[in-house]
Amino acid sequence: MQRAFVSAHTWLLTCRATACHVALENSKLASGSVLPRPVVAISTFYVPCTSRSGQTLKSSDSMESVIELAYEGLYMLRIELVFLVVFGLLWVAGRVFGTAKRTQPGNPKGSGRKAGPASTQRRPGLTQRRPGSGDENLSPNLPISAVDPKKLQNASWVVTQVTQLCRSQVQKALELYRAALRAGLNLEEMLAEESQQLSTGLVTAAIRVGQAEDALGVMKDLRRVGLSTDPALLASATKQLARKGLFADCLAIYDFASQDPKLTIQDKSVWSCLLFCAVETKGYGRCAYFFERLKACGAPSPKDFGNMVRFASSTGNWRLALSLIDEMHKAKVEVDSVVYNTVLAACVSAEQLDQARQLLDDMVEAGGVTDVITYNTLAKGYAKAGCMDTCFELYNLMRSRGLTPSQVTYGILLDGFINDNEVEKAVEIFNTMRAEGCQMNTVLYTTLIKGFARAGQVDQAVKIYEEMQKERSMQPDVITFSILIKANCDVGRLEEALKMLLAMKEAGLKPDEVVFNNLLGGCINDCKIDLAKDLYKEMLASSVKPSVATFSILIRLYAQCKRWDEAVDLLRQELPAQRVVPEPRLYGQLAQCCLRDRQGRRATEVYKMLTDHSTPTAAMNSTLLGMCAKLNMLDTGAEIMHLAANAASRVDPRDAAMMLEAALRKKKPQVMDTLKDAMIKLKLPVHA
DNA sequence: TTAGGGTTAG
Question: Secretion signal: which residues (predicted)?
Answer without folding.
Answer: 1-19
